[in-house]
Amino acid sequence: MEHNPRAAWLTQAASAAHQQGSGDLLRVVLIVMFLGCALTAWFLLRGYRQKDD
Questions:
Q1: Distance set, CA 52 to CA 27, 43, 49 (Å)
Q2: What whole-number distance in Å separates Cα of residue 45 and Cα of residue 37?
Q3: In sequence order, what E strands does 1-53 have?
Q4: CA-to-CA distance for 27 and 40, rounded, in angstroms?
Q5: What DSSP designation does 49 have?
Q6: Residues 12 and 4 sit within 8 Å (Cβ to Cβ)
Q7: Over the stretch 17-32, which tens digit does the pLDDT of each residue have?
Q8: pTM for the structure as a whole
Q9: Nearest Cα residue to 1 out of 10, 9, 14, 19
């Protein structure tokens, strides 16, 4: 195992991240989708609460 300077390691990590494709975009889309589903469910289901009046 060879020792790489910090700048060389950072350059290799950046090129590897660039080659991975749209992983970050997919992660953001999934997070927004789950949050949107949760907020939609909350909005729709809050009208079904029974009032204790």
A1: 42, 20, 9
A2: 12
A3: none
A4: 20
A5: P
A6: yes
A7: 566 677 888 999 999 9
A8: 0.51
A9: 9
